[in-house]
Model the fold of this input.
Amino acid sequence: QQPVQSPQAVILREGEDAVINCSSSKALYSVHWYRQKHGEAPVFLMILLKGGEQKGHDKISASFNEKKQQSSLYLTASQLSYSGTYFCGTEQGAQKLVFGQGTRLTINP
Amino acid sequence: DAGVIQSPRHEVTEMGQEVTLRCKPISGHDYLFWYRQTMMRGLELLIYFNNNVPIDDSGMPEDRFSAKMPNASFSTLKIQPSEPRDSAVYFCASNSLGGRGGYTFGSGTRLTVV
Done:
């Protein structure tokens, strides 16, 4: 079953923060986050494996609440390069990822 | 490593024709995935392989679609006969169970069926 992402779209000014949420009706064992720029392939950002785990890369971080079957992606002090569509993917079977519908993030100067 | 390599990058074909998409995964990756992306349906998993063996093809839309992986370095996705509703971007991705680095996607094949 496809995870649900919210919001569907976000428009920010450079330097502002954003949160993208991903929830599933099924038990989550891991959550992946990817970013896709227009006309390009999705690019892996991070994977979260444990309940309550948080990871970060530069100013992009994520949390994973296994009990609530939710994950959130946090983008702080956004940069123009953060623009794109963000997808969460939930693992449903060994290595089998099902992706959410995506959240389009637009960063304006 | 050159990454996941897909060909062709673009394909325009007439309805009813056979289309073959190709993928070369990253060397050493034992999982290979075929996804289709459209505006309406997003990223859909079509089929995936582990060690060249199909594991789950429940996402293959109908019998017109078939996929093979004859060896660890090559996979094909075939559509026969093609229909306009098959128009989409088809991505191949690979991964390794031993590594937790996420999927690596190829650049995709943009298929247009007219």
Summary: Residues 40 and 84 of chain A are 10 Å apart (CA to CA). The longest strand of chain A covers residues 84-91.
